[in-house]
Fold this sequence. Notes:
Elements: E1 6-11, H1 19-33, E2 37-41, H2 53-59, H3 63-73, E3 77-81, E4 84-85, E5 88-89, H4 91-100, E6 117-123, H5 131-143, E7 147-155, H6 171-192
Parallel strand pairs: 1-2, 1-3, 3-6, 6-7
Antiparallel strand pairs: 4-5
Helix pairs in contact: 1-6
Amino acid sequence: xxxxxxILAFAGSARKESFNKKMVRIxxxxxxxxxxxxxxxxxxxxxxxxxxxxxxxxxxxPENGRKIKDLMLAHQGFLIAAPExxxxxxxxxxxxxxxxxxxxxxEPPMACFAGKVAVVMSxxxxxxxxxxGLVHLRAILGNIGTLVLTETYSISRAMDAFDPAGVLKDPxxxxxxxxxxxxxxxxxxxxxxxx
Length: 195
């Protein structure tokens, strides 16, 4: 008998009113409704220095880097909402991935990412909804061993898309984003069952 899929949901933003935080919470609700055990990680709780290999050699993995690695290791799937900065992903998200990818003694390479499954999404005030950044995120995750599902969604003109409670005003959009969580949960469940 398989256990409930464990999903880690986070946005590559520390901003309090981040559109991507709102979006990933909706996807997380979809995953919960599909039977997943979901943890929402708030990036601002895990501040990290800019990755520096000399810093790593002298001081090792920062405490918050270890906490993030532990969270990632404990989950089989990731829901990631990625803001777009200058046609790419945010420095916060890239730095988090870089620190989490660093091996510690006794750990296989890319332990946090290899064999994991992810769904990526974005929300942006722009007309493309952050799509350009998702291209880079998919490449990064794929190169470190994470299976990125084809299911994805981008919300354009995000400043008008959410109500004050963080729900999408368009019920169709709300359903599509919830379905991202469902799709990830179902894939993790299939992989657990060896299908």
